[in-house]
Amino acid sequence: MDNQNQRRKSKFSFSRAPISDNGQTNTLQQFKNKFKGQMLQLINKNESGNNKEQEIQQFLSRINVELDVEDYKYIKFDLSEYKEKYEEGQVLGEGCIGLVKSIVRKIDGQELACKTVKTDAEEIVKNMILEFKNLKKLSHRHIVKMEELYIQWNEGFQSTGIVNVVMEKVKGSEMFEVIQKQKNYSECTARILFKQILEAIEYMHENYCCHRDLKPNNILCAEDGRSIKITDFNVSKFTDGYKEFGNLNEHGKIEMWTYTGTVAFSAPEIFSGGLYNEQVDLWSAGVILYVMLSGELPFNSDYLNDLIDKIQQCKYEMIGQVWDQVSCQAKDLISNLLQFDPLKRLTPQQALDHPWVKNDQNSSDLPRDKLQKNMARFLNWKPQETQVNAKKIKQLCFLFGAADIWKRHSLKHSSVSNISEELKKFKSIDITSFQTTEHIQVIKDKNSNNLYHIDYPFSDEEFD
Questions:
Q1: Residue by residue, what is the 3-state secondary structure of 400-455?
Q2: Which residues form the Protein kinase domain (predicted)?
């Protein structure tokens, strides 16, 4: 017996009572054994708790994350507590790295949503903790609110982790899906929604947050088409510059230089290789408004380099049947948001003060047939059969962010991807993964339409 168990045993000693009846002796012995077992179990539980606390602190130290007392109210390292507190319901959606489910808080019946991410990369867990900490500080009616974060990290030969992010449940869908369902859609409706987008951007910038990936897919809309909430802050930049400088408007900018975001909605300065600031969100807002009023992208191309060239040259048009019905004020606002020079681009407050946003707009329907056709194409894009060849599919994967598709299918241990179905979820690529596209080989399956074998000579870790 080891010394530790010997010490534990010495904590419990019993004197034998002079009992003559054998039955009573056996009962007493059973009671003593049960009591000793319960006490040892309690000690082991306490020691286990201490070990777990040490493991948590070691893990946080390893990923270079500090949590204060307030953080521990909302960030938990015990999934059993999540299971006790919430009951899971239907799946609401599946993203690139996570599954979102509807959940109900048992104590009060409150409906919430939970995104579950399974990963073997500590960096992903770190980013999710930091993102949650930052988003927890934001409180705005047009930004999805974070509630709690549950983490389980299992050390081992191949460590694995599960992260549950509990957040506000928005009873709606992506903005364009809701717009498509509306019987009446006019500049008046677009103005209401776009004003809310600008209010959220203004609040984010005032709180030293630059979203960096504003696009229709990241804007949830209530089913009545009257209110929005911005979500998905995976690549957002948060800073505590206010501690040093005070007022953002007086001391300028949130400085960034990382290549990130979705190309079709990204500002030209992101591709320059130098510093850029939070005005990139206003460019993205301009692209969003352009699409809200026409269903088309201002900058579009089958090839990534051509798309970036168009953005950097600020080449776009507002002509055609749809644009004939759009007001001059709306076009003026778009033009002032899609300014190449960030200094000439409208700030959130200037955009909110623009006549198109401040005044009631025309309630006449925009050309529904054309607009709806464009939006359907934007949401449900599929490659034409004539485009299907290895080189073209490679380009489309590159343009439409298929790094996430490759990752997801590799996790499922599948070498077959239905490109047609998968690509409709994407409109552009996260440009942080440029280097991964040169060696991709996509071969059409001879036995099935729209199925392709994807072969890539890099490991899953390169995407983590």
A1: CCCHHHHHHHHHCCCCEECHHHHHCCCCCCEHHHHHHCCCCEEEECCCCCCCEEEE
A2: 86-357
Q: What is the pLDDT of residues 41-65, one digit of tens each?
A: 555 555 555 677 888 888 899 989 9
Q: Which residues of 97-128 are buried (b: 16+ CB within 10 A; e: fewer)?
A: bbebbbbbeeeeeeebbbbbbebbbbebbbeb
Question: If you average pLDDT over every residue of the chain, what do you get?
Answer: 74
The DSSP letter of residue 270 is G
Question: Which CATH number applies to 71-168?
Answer: 3.30.200.20
Residue 255, pLDDT score: 84
| Residue 322 pLDDT | 84
Whether the pLDDT of residue 426 is over 80: the answer is no
pLDDT the model gives residue 21: 52
> Which of 2, 108, 120, 213 is flagged as catalytic?
213
Residue 130 near residue 147, CB atoms below 8 Å = no
Residues 157-179, mean pLDDT to the nearest whole number = 85
- 445 assigned to active site: no
Two tokens at 259? Answer: 């290549």
The answer on pLDDT for 34 being more than 90 is no
Per-residue H/E/C for 239-262: CCCHHHHCCHHHHCCCCECCCCCE
State the span(s) of the chain assigned CATH 3.30.200.20: 71-168
Of the candidates 143, 274, 263, the one whose C-alpha atom is nearest the C-alpha of residue 209 is 143
Going along 195-238, which residue ranges are E strands? Answer: 209-210, 219-222, 228-230, 237-238
Residue 450 is which amino acid?
N
Contact 148, 76 (CB under 8 A): yes
- Measured in residues, the chain has a length of 464
Query: In the prediction, which pLDDT does 430 show?
Result: 36
The CATH H-level (homologous superfamily) assignment of domain 172-379 is: Transferase(Phosphotransferase) domain 1 (1.10.510.10)
Question: Of the given ranges (37-41, 155-159, 247-251), which has the lowest mean pLDDT?
Answer: 247-251
| Residues of each domain in the chain carrying CATH 1.10.510.10 | 172-379
Residue 58 has a CB neighbour count (10 Å cut-off) of: 11
Map tokens 């708790």 to a residue.
49
Cross-strand pairs, 187: none
